[in-house]
Structures are given as structure tokens and as C-alpha cells.
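Progress note, sequence design subtask.
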């Protein structure tokens, strides 16, 4: 499959992509929760809460997808789209291996992902013809904006480097 622009995606592809992104981000956030559980349990708890919310988003999207499209075959992934949807951009994976991931780096990574997710859902909302899907994507964009605000406040509270 050649790379597509977001505007070229079918509604089914947008929905599949959104479900996949929410699922993978839940896994990534749980990794952060585990990483910080020993020395920043409050932050670990918040990452775990965010992971649970990503799971709820995934489940909402699955219900909406089944209701709107029924069963369909769609294999689009983040790698098939020019615009990256919600990546966790970790400059070097060895931070996990050597357990030297900083709280600031983790929060900055999650912040970038949440900003991209909010943009993705706003684009999906604008492109959706179905009013129920528009509302779902609008709500998800608002949830992501809430994550952005929380992360920005947490980063601000860290001051210099952490």
C-alpha cells in the first residue's frame, strides 16, 4: 500500500486507524507507568489512568465502528499514512533498556503524541459525514486536549530538567 494523505482515507480507514492508535497508546502509557512505579508512583498512577482512558476511547470507537460500518476488512496502520497520528517519539529506545528514561522525556513524548491525537480527531471530525461520528471525534479531541493540559502543567511544575 502506498502512503496516503489523511484526506484520502475512507471513513472505515479513519476509524480503524483511530482504534489501532488508541490501543497501541494504552500499551505505551502502561510501559511508562511501569517504568515510573518505583520512584514516582504519583506519575505512574497518572500514566496508568491515561492508559485506561485510551482503552475506553478504543472501546468507544469499536462500538461506533460496529454500529456505523458493521464488520469490514481494513488493514490501514499508522505506517500507511503520511501524517503521523499519535506517535510516542522516543529518541533512543535504549532508555528503556538501561532504565534511564527521565520523567521530563516521558512527559514530553506523551505531550507530542497527545497534541497529534487531538489534531487527528479534529481532522476526523471535520471529514466525518455521520453526525454520531462527528460527535465522537469531537469528544475524543476534547479528551486529548485535557491530556495536553495536564501534561503541560506537570512539565511546568518540574521547572528545569528532571
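Output:
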Amino acid at each position: 500500500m502506498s502512503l496516503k494523505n489523511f484526506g484520502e482515507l475512507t471513513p472505515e480507514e479513519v476509524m480503524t486507524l483511530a482504534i489501532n492508535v488508541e490501543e497501541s497508546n494504552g500499551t505505551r502509557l502502561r510501559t511508562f507507568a511501569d517504568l515510573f512505579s518505583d520512584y514516582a508512583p504519583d506519575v505512574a498512577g497518572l500514566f496508568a489512568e491515561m492508559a485506561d482512558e485510551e482503552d475506553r476511547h478504543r472501546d468507544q470507537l469499536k462500538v461506533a465502528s460496529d454500529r456505523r460500518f458493521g464488520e469490514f476488512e481494513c488493514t490501514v496502520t499508522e505506517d500507511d499514512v503520511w501524517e503521523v497520528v499519535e506517535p510516542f517519539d522516543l529518541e533512543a529506545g535504549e532508555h528503556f533498556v538501561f532504565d534511564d528514561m527521565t520523567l521530563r522525556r516521558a512527559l514530553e513524548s506523551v505531550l507530542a503524541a497527545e497534541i497529534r491525537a487531538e489534531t487527528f480527531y479534529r481532522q476526523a471530525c471535520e471529514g466525518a459525514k455521520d453526525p454520531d461520528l462527528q460527535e465522537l471525534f469531537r469528544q475524543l479531541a476534547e479528551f486529548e486536549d485535557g491530556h495536553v493540559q495536564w501534561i503541560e502543567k506537570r512539565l511546568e511544575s518540574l521547572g528545569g530538567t528532571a
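Helices lie at 11-36, 41-69, 94-97, 103-127, 131-158. Work on this subtask will continue into the next period as scheduled.
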